[in-house]
Amino acid sequence: MQIARKLRTQSITAYIIYMYQVEDVIRAYGLDIERIEEEYMPRFDLGESQRKEEREWYESLIRMMKEEGKTQCGHVQVVRNTIQLLSERHQELLSDPKQPYYSAAYYKALPYIVELRAKSHAMDKGEIENCLDAVYGATLIGMQGRELSEETRLALQPITHLLEMLSDLWSDK
What we know:
mainly alpha, 8 helices, 76% helix
C-alpha cells in the first residue's frame, strides 16, 4: 500500500503497472491473506502498524477481486477506473493545440501501438491500456530473467516515452 500510495502521486502509469503486479502477486498466493502475510510481506521492512495497514490493504484487494470476479485475470474496478481516467486525459491532450510534443510522441508510438493491438487481439481495450499491458509484459519478461528481442525493445521506447509524458501531464490536470 505504501508503494502504491507513493507511486500514485509520483507517476500514475507506474502506479497502474504496480497494481497489475499486486493483483498477480495476490493470485500467485491463491488469494490467501495468511500466505501473503507470512510469505510475501516479510520481504519488506515494515513496522507493526505498517504491517497491519498492509494486511488490511491486501485484504480489501482480495475482497474486491473476489466480488468482481477477478480471481483468475483482469483488473479490479479501482484500477480500471484509473485507466479510464488516464485514457480520457490522453484524448484531452491529443486535442489540445498547446500540447504538440505530446501529439508528436503519440504519433511516433502509434505504429507500434497498432502492431501491438493487432498481435494481442486486444481491440476491445483502449490504446493506453494496450501500452500499459505492453510495459507490464516486458517487466514480467525481465523479472523472469529472459531477454527482450531488439525489435521489442525498440518498440517499447516510444510507448514508454508516451506513457511517461502522459504521467507527467496527468498531474497538470
